[in-house]
């Protein structure tokens, strides 16, 4: 074990990874049935990152993710029903159906999306962290309540090339803001391999250019992810400024639902699949005698039931009335209404 | 009380910072330097570096950080030095500031105020003389204000800070040194209606921002020729107050729209189209536009003047119209 | 020969790469991936990594690099994946591509071609469904093309590459799978004139890009009701061919402009204003606009359809107009 | 001496620095007389950079500079007359008067501006370098003629914070383009000190994030600038890809003509002025017995005469006729005309 954990905790990590995997397998199925449309980016293969990283954050912390955010929303705690309904575009979805797969939101869990412009989430996260820091500085805010809040900002290796990565890391470090830059390096930006979009493919090393501490983490090992993230979070909570983690992981499926995958070999994909974060972790747990086939079966059954309920919830959900199309362009109290 | 436009903006900033601890100002050189146009001079000394924040040159990120801070409960005022640099931040504005509320099903509000200098007329050439207010007015989800008077310069900022949604304030750089009477009675000013700055009977001259003063001067000169123009200051480009425009045109039956932007695709075209749609049968003749020549604004005074709307071009346009009408 | 719009674009790219060694293509995933919309599929294999260049995600820089390469004697074709991402490159486009020639006193030309997908209709929600062609058409110094047919999809690209100045080509993403008759006789196609796609007597339906097909369908349906619409495909938004528009309106005395952009500040407003200025006395009634609802485009099919111009809305608008006329 | 030079060469370096200094002193004077308007950014104090760096580039190389480019255009070889006329806005200016101080251009010398959007010149330079590389790759181009061309890209420390710095260095390194990133670090971005706009103030170090070699150079020492630049240029010419030089220098005057200079102390300015690149180099040359008071006087007289001629040229120059306002928005051969 990378660090000491209990059986219960190990099973919970496995369960979360499985929830993501099965949820997305179902989503892919529903996509081919035409129940889900538009872009659908699957996280399958990368589950250890969301499952290992997100528990390190409290309900008071803020989370910003990308268009590949199903796993993050699930682990953050948004019920599966509203997430599935969002994929359907139903009014009982987590964004009233308006966002779809790329735009999950959950204000009650400080989940700020679901943002689909690559790199666009970083400045937002920096701003959320600035607000968190203000809440400490200004006497007008209750320090106790706000003490040590941090913001988690997930993004991919492709986002590292965008100017906003550079600008955001500089600003966050300059102002010592409590933000964690969590790079899910799955080695590809769509069809462009890391070495063809980064002249210096070591992303963690780039943090030095901003005097930000950074660590490379095995993103296929949920315990390694958990341990590294917990350590980084505690450093940030203590007011030491931002931190960058580079999770080395891999996307098992196509970039989105349409993708001929001309840019990588079957062998490469197969090699990474042998490091499947779920299979390898199941193996470790069973070697510890913590996981029997029954346990797995029970877990799968429970998740299958949860998914069935989520699909039923989505199927039963209403479509937002067309009359409401222009609702919420502005806030009701706004002078524009 | 007579104050300059610059002082009015500064007074608005001070009042906002004093009255609400969630308000802070960030932008390039707003602090120690005092602001390129000196709008925030003295505020860094008064409110300190936490609330008056100098940012690195990184427009897209500090505007995005303003959005995030607003989502996080603050009331940020972001200053973009001039409108041309705001192009670097347009992704955050269009794709995040303007969409997050609607796209999330109404879960979030973004009480962000962004101020920037706009316009030409100071011989700073092609990369520093744009007028993109019309582009901003195209974006649902944000509001666009163009204060032309010292009262609006201060008042609109204060009202904007009470808004739950992103507000963009365009201050014409040419106006900063302009003196005017600050009407404290007018507060709080609304940010919903256009204003009739000069009532008249013969033609409606519709404009906003820096061009208002050219329109008013043209109107006074025309008055000496027996023409009585009505001058409308749009004040708010989004949401646009069509009613005031249409009421005026139904009375005067003629309209000239003055807009410092390039003619093709200018906001003046939108005003013309709205009159077409709402008052076509009241028109005695076609609505005319006085806009900038379709060229990058050149440095030399004579060429810059030739490129921009001028008092004489407004007068000539009105004369031609009356002659025809 | 029947080809898809996608194939027509690809054929244009191939021909350009074969005929001029200075031509190269760069953009995100144009190479090994074959292009998000498969427009460049097979070109990387055929022309190699030097001329088919995958770029990192960095829109402002690879567009700026296109400007620099053009200044350096090349004939770059830059693909921006979709128009919403082009906002990140707008600084380079407005401040450099469009100004350097004029600002330098005519010392340089920038033979750059930028292609991008635009438009909504594929349920990809608020951050991927914009139509900013109208914004681009506001910028002096560049040209803006909106091919709606397979012949223009290929032909305009080839003509654009012969232009000495920056040309922006907007390909409506909805059209890529559309099949059409490729008219090789039409080459070289001009990029100066609008086209009358359907001659008619009763009303001018003026549009461009993806909306052309909705307009044509509406026209056919209206014809069955005894209304005979003329359908004009603008083809080129900058410089705009006013003559063809005005000639049509002088004949039909009525006009409807269809534009997928948000109504306020849409390019449709410019068309309406030009008709106001050039054919006011020929109009039997006000020019109408059919545009998108002023909301971030939502994901669900029924809401997206309600937000965009549709065949039925065009028909209803024409009916209302004829009734009134 | 940082490296071996001849007396003639030493005098020439001094002369170029003096030409810049006197030209700009005259420009400041003309500005207060209202002959020059708009923004005027003086290079005074930084002359050693342009004077030492530009001779390392050939006439076939390309140069991109900023709005603080008077010195670069002078050393590149554009005659003083058209430059002074440009400041006046006269039709005999180097940009027909349309650009003014911030927008010097000279196609005949491959001088691509004179660009005033901070950071905006970097992508342009990367593109020029891409064209230079193509001219080697494509059999259709005459290799001989194009062999080893490079692009010089000047920018300030403030530009380092912009996303384009990050994006441009990555792209140039990824594609191994022949471009030199020449950072004139004068310690301030307008009124913002380096340490308040860069979380990691060591700019040269940032080049590592792109696997680009870099060197810090004393920008107040014209010989150090010359030597470092020559070495970097030869590496780039050999096809080793981009190079970054950080010239540490200082702006003696205000950022532009209007600037209360609230952001720095008189002491700091005085300390830097003691390192005046011209005075210190004069001293070195005279210590070597290479420079007499007479030499200095002759040089000053010649430059004064050159400036008088330039002013006369500008004063005599015509204004562009208003009818030509819309000329050159498009190229004559364009279909738009
Ligand atoms: C600014 C911008 N440019 C291009 C795109 C199109 N696009 C969507 S995802 C993607 C690849 C992003 O790769 P990465 O950041 O590594 O995330 P991953 O998909 O691998 O999780 C691209 C190019 C976009 N959404 N935003
Ligand atoms: C994108 C952009 N933002 C802001 C400005 C306004 N501005 C002009 S110069 C300058 C400071 C630039 O500092 P630096 O890059 O160090 O160059 P220096 O003036 O010191 O030579 C600023 C903020 C600009 N021209 N462009
Ligand atoms: Mg990736
Ligand atoms: Mg500097």
Q: What are its keywords?
A:
heterotetramer, A: 337 residues, alpha/beta, six-stranded parallel β-sheet, two-stranded antiparallel ribbon, B: 325 residues, Rossmann fold, 2 domains, seven-stranded mixed β-sheet, five-stranded mixed β-sheet, 12 helices, 36% helix, 21% strand, binds thiamine diphosphate, binds magnesium ion
Look at the structure and give the mean pLDDT of chain A.
Answer: 95
Which CATH top level class of the largest domain in chain B fits? Alpha Beta
Rounded to an integer in angstroms, the radius of gyration calculated over CA atoms of chain B is 20 Å
Uncertain regions of chain B: pLDDT < 50 for 5+ in a row? none
Intertermini distance of chain B: 42 Å
Mean pLDDT of chain B: 97
Question: Can you walk me through this structure?
Answer:
- The complex is a heterotetramer, with two copies of chain A (337 residues) and two copies of chain B (325 residues).
- Chain A is α/β, with parallel strands linked by helices and 337 residues long.
- In chain A, 44% of the residues lie in helices and 11% in strands.
- In chain A, the strands form two sheets. Chain A has a six-stranded parallel beta sheet, with helices on both faces. In chain A, strands 5-6 form a two-stranded antiparallel ribbon.
- Chain A is globular.
- Chain B is of the alpha/beta class and 325 residues long.
- Chain B has two domains: 2-186, Thiamin diphosphate (ThDP)-binding fold, Pyr/PP domains (Rossmann fold), CATH 3.40.50; 195-322, Rossmann fold (3-Layer(aba) Sandwich), CATH 3.40.50.
- Chain B has helices at residues 5-19, 43-47, 59-71, 90-97, 100-103, 133-136, 150-160, 211-223, 242-252, 267-279, 301-307, 311-324, and strands at residues 2-4, 23-27, 52-54, 75-82, 113-118, 143-145, 167-172, 179-181, 195-198, 203-207, 229-233, 236-238, 255-262, 288-292.
- Chain B has a seven-stranded mixed beta sheet, sandwiched between helices.
- In chain B, helix 2 (43-47) links the parallel strand 2 and strand 3.
- In chain B, helix 1 runs parallel beside helix 7, helix 3 (59-71) runs parallel beside helix 4 and helix 9 (242-252) crosses helix 10 (267-279).
- The longest helix of chain B has 15 residues, at 5-19.
- Chains in contact: A-B, A-C, A-D, B-C, B-D, C-D.
- Chain B binds chain D through residues 28-29, 32-34, 36, 54-58, 60-61, 84-85, 88, 122-128, 293-296, 298-303, 306-307, and chain D through 37-39, 89-90, 97-100, 102-103, 115-119, 158-159, 161-163, 189-192, 196-198, 259-260, 262-263, 319-320, 322, 325-326, 329.
- The site of one magnesium ion has 6 residues of chain A, from strand 5.
């Amino acid at each position: 074990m990378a660090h000491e954990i209990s059986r219960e905790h190990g099973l919970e990590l496995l369960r979360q990874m499985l929830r993501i995997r099965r949820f997305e397998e179902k989503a892919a199925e529903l996509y081919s049935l035409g129940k889900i449309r538009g872009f659908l980016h699957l996280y399958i293969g990368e589950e250890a990152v969301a499952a290992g990283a997100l528990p390190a954050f409290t309900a008071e912390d803020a989370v910003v993710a990308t268009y590949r955010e199903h796993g993050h929303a699930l682990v953050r705690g948004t019920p599966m029903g509203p997430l599935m309904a969002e994929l359907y575009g139903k009014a009982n979805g987590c964004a009233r159906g308006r966002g779809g797969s790329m735009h999950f939101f959950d204000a009650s869990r400080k989940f700020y999306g679901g943002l689909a412009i690559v790199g666009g989430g970083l400045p937002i996260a920096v701003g959320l962290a600035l607000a968190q820091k203000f809440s400490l500085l200004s006497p007008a805010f209750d320090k106790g309540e706000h003490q040590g809040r941090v913001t988690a900002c997930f993004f991919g290796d492709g986002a590292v090339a965008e100017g906003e990565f550079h600008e955001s890391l500089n600003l966050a470090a300059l102002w010592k803001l409590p933000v964690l830059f969590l790079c899910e390096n799955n080695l590809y930006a769509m069809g462009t391999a890391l070495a063809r979009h980064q002249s210096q493919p070591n992303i963690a090393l780039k943090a030095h250019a901003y005097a930000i501490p950074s660590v490379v983490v095995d993103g296929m090992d949920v315990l390694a992810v958990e341990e590294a993230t917990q350590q980084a979070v505690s450093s940030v909570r203590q007011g030491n400024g931002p931190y960058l983690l580079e999770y080395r992981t891999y996307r098992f499926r196509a970039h989105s639902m349409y993708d001929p995958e001309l840019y990588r070999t079957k062998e490469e994909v197969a090699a990474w699949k042998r490091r499947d974060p779920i299979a390898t972790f199941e193996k470790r747990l069973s070697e510890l005698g913590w996981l029997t086939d029954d346990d797995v079966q029970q877990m799968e059954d429970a998740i299958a039931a949860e998914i069935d309920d989520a699909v039923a919830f989505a199927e039963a959900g209403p479509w937002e009335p067309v009359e409401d199309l222009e609702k919420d362009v502005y806030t009701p109290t706004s002078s524009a209404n | 009380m007579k104050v300059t436009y610059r002082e009015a903006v500064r007074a608005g900033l001070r009042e906002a910072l004093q009255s609400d601890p969630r308000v802070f100002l960030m932008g390039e050189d707003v602090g120690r330097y005092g602001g390129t146009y000196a709008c925030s001079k003295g505020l860094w000394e008064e409110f300190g570096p936490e609330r008056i924040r100098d940012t690195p040159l990184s427009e897209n990120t500090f505007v995005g950080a303003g959005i995030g801070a607003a989502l996080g409960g603050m009331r940020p005022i972001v200053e973009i030095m001039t409108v041309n640099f705001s192009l670097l931040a347009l992704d955050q504005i269009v794709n995040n500031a303007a969409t997050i509320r609607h796209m999330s099903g109404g879960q979030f509000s973004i009480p962000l105020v962004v101020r920037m200098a706009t316009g030409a007329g100071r011989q700073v050439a092609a990369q520093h003389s744009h007028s993109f207010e019309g582009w901003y007015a195209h974006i649902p989800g944000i509001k666009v204000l163009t204060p032309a008077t010292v009262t609006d310069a201060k008042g609109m900022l204060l009202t904007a800070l009470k808004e739950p949604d992103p507000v963009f304030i365009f201050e014409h750089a040419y106006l900063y040194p302009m003196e005017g009477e600050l009407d404290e009675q007018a507060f709080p000013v609304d940010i919903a209606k256009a204003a009739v700055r000069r009532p008249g009977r013969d033609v409606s001259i519709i404009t906003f921002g820096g061009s208002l003063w050219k329109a008013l001067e043209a109107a006074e000169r025309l008055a000496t020729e027996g023409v009585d123009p009505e001058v409308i200051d749009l004040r708010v480009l989004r949401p646009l107050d069509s009613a005031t425009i249409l009421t005026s045109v139904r009375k005067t039956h003629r309209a000239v729209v003055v807009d410092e932007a390039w003619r093709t695709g200018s906001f003046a075209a939108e005003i013309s189209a709205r009159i077409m749609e709402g008052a076509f049968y009241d028109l005695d003749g076609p609505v005319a536009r006085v806009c900038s020549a379709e060229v990058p604004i050149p440095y030399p005074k004579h060429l810059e003047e030739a490129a921009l709307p001028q008092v004489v071009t407004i007068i000539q346009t009105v004369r031609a119209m009356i002659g025809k009408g």
